[in-house]
Specification:
single chain; Methylamine Dehydrogenase, Chain H; Thrombin, subunit H; 2% helix; DUF7899; SH3_Tf2-1
């Protein structure tokens, strides 16, 4: 018997009911290597009954769990909405380019101001990456820059990856002096960065000469593609060990889902189908080969594997949701489902989120609209994993939104008017908290106390809410970090 709840709890930290299924429920069967099918009661008939192993907890029967109905009391003020996470002040401001005159870089473009592309945080350190490839680390306790992450004078950092297993930071870089233009992947302990000992980093995947590398956070894997060798190599990020290779053949794309790799092969236009293969992420074992229908002369808008569900959408056609185990097909009428520019699999909740322009929705795998969001018109029409943040329990989305009813201009990536940072419930679509330029109580934290550990704040809260390009929520510290087009980082805290 198991209970599909991320944590066995009936109330969260704010004494609000958590909408999680406590169970217990009987396991009917194992579904592949990473999921189970549960026997749900008739009251949960609308709930998909396949759950990822990561959200199941073993249930041990105990007579103390039986509660008499006469002892149950209803508290009227409880709801399914989380309590308001009010942000009262902007604590700090960091400038990535504050000491750029003294930098040793041979690449002059690294010294030019550019937008913040990515923010990560771990163990009291904020890591930022600009779109030009400049990386920096800031200490949250001392509120100052520890160091730049570019160790070599011609190093351009492409991406950052935080590895929780050993509390290290992985960087992916290119070097101007390298004529082969091949990337270098390196790792360094967080504590070494804290001490500004960047020479402690060492190179990973030295024998690889790949063209692209994809870090998969859910499965803790790295997928490296080499066009020269026509191979995909998969590595375990836990110990950086090589797992297996996949011959490119006629593979056009590889999708990574929890526990599964989906291999998409070249479409057979004459026969009207796309050959697909599902492999186990852990050992590359072939789990299933199948085909999906494809209309001739119609572009495939997207094809994604989310758990056991394959989503296929072609232009001007209905969305198809195919159960790859049973081949059951559910269609969503084209006029009801907008063609998204981005999709996110909410694997803990067995839902998926769709983005199109400034709009977002959450859908179930039954083909039903699950959540429409209120007061959540995105400021940017271009969505990526860096300018939104979804909490680890996948209950809250934090996004940069418009204030009021300004019209959206697709050609204008960044608006000059300030936006608001909205925290919205993924279940109800309601905004549960907001950092708004219209809020008269929004202020800069008092700078008089503990002056030695405070940063210099130059911009007003309203200016800090302009042109935000990256958002990160530190769930341990309950702080939001934002980066903007000018290379500034702002810390929002209560």
């Amino acid at each position: 018997m198991v209970s599909p709840s991320r944590r066995i709890k009936r109330f969260d930290l704010r004494n609000k009911l958590n909408p999680q299924f406590v169970g217990p429920f009987e396991i009917l069967e194992r579904v592949g290597p990473v999921a189970c099918r549960l026997a749900l009661p008739p009251s949960l008939v609308q709930v998909h009954n396949v759950f990822h192993m990561s959200i199941l907890r073993k249930y041990i029967p105990d007579s103390s769990h039986v509660i008499s109905p006469t002892t149950i009391q209803l508290q009227e003020d409880l709801s399914y909405d989380k309590a308001l996470m009010r942000i009262l002040a902007r604590e700090e401001e960091f400038d990535v380019y504050e000491n750029s005159d003294s930098w040793f870089f041979t690449l002059q473009f690294l010294k030019r101001r550019s937008r913040i592309m990515e923010i990560l945080a771990a163990k009291g350190i904020i890591f930022v990456l600009t779109v030009r490839g400049l990386g920096a680390a800031f200490c949250r306790t001392k509120n100052k820059c520890i160091c730049l992450l570019n160790v070599e004078e011609d190093e351009v950092i492409e991406s950052l990856f935080y590895k929780k297993d050993d509390e290290s930071l992985v960087t992916l870089s290119l070097h101007a002096s390298d004529n082969s233009n091949s990337w270098k992947c390196r790792t360094i302990p967080i504590e070494s960065i804290r001490k500004n000992q960047l020479r402690a980093r060492y190179q990973l995947f030295e024998t690889e000469s790949g063209d692209t590398i994809e870090f998969d956070v859910v499965n803790n894997k790295a997928l490296i593609y080499s066009a020269r060798n026509h191979l995909y190599d998969l590595f375990d990020m836990k110990d950086y060990s090589f797992k297996y290779s996949i011959n490119e053949g006629n593979i056009t794309e590889i999708k990574i889902s929890p526990g599964i790799l989906l291999l998409k092969h070249q479409r057979n236009n004459w026969a009207g189908y796309v050959p697909l293969e599902m492999l186990s992420v852990e050992d590359g074992t072939l789990l299933k080969s199948f085909k999906t229908q494809s209309y001739r002369n119609k572009q495939v808008s997207f094809m994604e594997l989310f758990g056991e569900k394959l989503l296929v959408k072609q232009e001007n056609e209905n969305l198809q949701i195919v159960d790859v185990r049973t081949s059951e097909l559910i269609e969503v009428v084209d006029t009801e489902f907008f063609n998204p520019s981005a999709l996110i699999f909410l694997y803990r909740k067995n839902l998926f989120m769709c983005f199109q322009g400034t709009k977002l929705e959450v859908w179930s795998f039954h083909g039903e609209l699950f959540t429409s969001f209120e007061d959540n018109t995105l400021q940017h029409g271009i969505v990526n994993s860096n300018n939104i943040y979804i909490t680890d329990d996948q209950e809250i989305i934090i996004s940069y939104c418009k204030v009021g009813e300004e019209s959206y201009n697709e050609e204008e990536e960044f608006a000059d008017t300030p936006g608001s940072i909205n925290m919205s419930s993924i279940f109800t679509g309601k905004c549960v908290a907001k950092i708004s330029p219209l809020d008269p109580t929004l202020q800069i934290a008092d700078r008089n106390a503990d002056k030695t550990n405070r940063s210099t704040v130059r911009s007003t809260p309203q200016r800090a809410l302009k042109n935000i390009t990256a958002i990160y929520y530190d769930e341990e510290r309950n702080e939001i970090y934002t980066g903007n087009t000018e290379g500034f980082i702002h810390v929002w805290s209560n």
